[in-house]
Amino acid sequence: IAFQQVCARLAFLRSLPQGAMRELLKEEEEGGSFARLLRRLILAVGLERESLVIDEEQRGCFAETCMVGGKLHAEVRANISNQVGAHLKGALVEERDRVLIVGEVEEALAELEGLAAEDLGDWGSPGEGVEEGETERLRKEAEGDGDARKAAELEMGDIWEMDEWGNEFD
User: Fold this and answer.
1) Which pTM value belongs to this model?
2) What SS3 state is found at 162?
């Protein structure tokens, strides 16, 4: 993960509604990964929910109503892509940041479609955990660059607990 991608992720996180993030923080006491946040965002948009807190019943509903044969319904996929794109266009100034985040959303959509509907299970649940090695990889790639290291640590560590200026949420 490059420094620019970390910056794009931080800008995206800052653009999300603080109320939804606070609600998510109550559930994600140990923090969470950016990939998990994208999964929750996909589920929330697919279910037309404002909350990023998605329980097992809602994941089951998503699998039943938004997917067929292990793939997203075309209109659901288009709706998710359109809503994310519209949000990014209004929230992120830099085109390259928008392209990076759209790419990550598309990867998450592809991952979702790679799962059998009955295997949706914990996809986006609080018990998922940070992807193995992601935190260490970010730190290694940021070695020698103090700003990159700080951004990487924030992105993988306490970002769930801070607002856009680095202040902790109440």
Assistant:
1) 0.69
2) strand
